[in-house]
Design goal:
Blueprint lengths: L1 H32 L5 H15 L22 E2 L4 E2 H10 L10
Antiparallel strand pairs: 1-2
Helix pairs in contact: 1-2
Length: 103
């Protein structure tokens, strides 16, 4: 359980750094597109954007979803953020409102 917790916290830190970098990237893009800003600032923003595009850890596709119940990263449902096994247990107990078995 400790290893999964460590992975989860590491992933959370990556997500937070991605969000910060994404905000900076959007600001840099707006400076580049704005023609009213001085040329020096646009060049600095352009070089900042090119430098940040080279970093590998700042892409959203590298992140994994973790189950909020047992911190498993396998077969996690995006909507409920639960693994398949946890989802089955909770659904059979009837603790998910609005979820009914069809058939």
């Amino acid at each position: 359980m400790l290893r999964e917790k460590k992975k989860y916290l590491l992933e959370r830190g990556k997500r937070i750094s991605f969000i910060k970098a994404e905000l900076l990237r959007l600001v840099a893009k707006s400076y580049i597109k704005n023609t009213k800003v001085s040329g020096k600032l646009r060049v600095v923003a352009s070089s900042f954007l090119n430098f940040n595009l080279q970093k590998k850890e700042q892409t959203i596709s590298l992140f994994r979803f973790y189950c909020i119940k047992n911190l498993s990263s396998k077969l996690v449902n995006k909507k409920y953020r639960l693994s398949r096994f946890s989802f089955n247990k909770i659904a059979h107990a009837g603790k998910i409102p609005g979820l009914v078995k069809k058939g």
